[in-house]
Here is the input.
Amino acid sequence: MIPGIIGKKLGMTQLFRDDGTLEAVTAIEAGPCVVTQVKTAARDGYEAAQLGFGPAKRLNRPERGHLKGLGLFRHLREFRLQDASGLEVGQRVDVSIFREGELVNVTGTSKGKGFAGVVKRHGFAGGPKSHGQSDRHRAPGSIGATTSPGRVLKGTRMAGHMGNRRVTVRNLEVVKADADRNLLLLKGAVPGSRNSLLLIQKAKPGGG
Here is the structure.
């Protein structure tokens, strides 16, 4: 069975549970997806399924040839499998693969924040706010030692480009899975802005 699906973030809302507690949830348009390719260990060296999602306005000839008879999909993403037997090209995948209460991992591209300083990017406290200090309120401070090692160490946290990275949030609870509306409601927030692409996969036992 395919462990995941492709979706589009719709935004956040609130939902009352049966016990009356109010929960913040993210609404995702998940699927329906179509299996566009099945990879096997014998032919490709590993087991995987490629899914197509979202209508495409324009594709080149190789892309059209790859999707011949399946439709035109804007997004193609691959999901690793333990066993690809029983899967067929053209098979439909929707949110019915998830159950309420199940844990999933969500992968997306975080919002880009542009060039950010160390206070915003890494949570630094900044410099002293008194005793004659000026223009040091949001400065990083010292970035290294003197003769030893005589250089700035790799990985030192500094100002730079923030966001616009591939991020995975793990172990989010499925609050509701509505296959009729292709709607998936997950507890909490997921990476990305509204209408951004998401990959939703079942979490491995043990929180992986």
